[in-house]
Amino acid sequence: MSMKRTNVYADPEDLAIIKEAAARRGISEAEIIRQGIHLAAMANRVWDEPLFSRTFEGSGRTPSKEDLRNAVADSVRRESGSGTTA
Length: 86
Description:
mainly alpha
């Protein structure tokens, strides 16, 4: 991967924390800064497609634990071809 050099101003306290973390982790300060830039880039990325593109039918309420257990049990019964559970 090719890199591009850039200059930024940073708070001296932040740089001291980065220096300590780099020494503790055994990596370069530059690597920690690159990781931070990547996290900032991904946090501000605009995606072309929505995360959820499908809609689902339902009651509009959050299912209870019992509802979920019953739904899973019904699905397992259908998948296994069994009419009863053990």
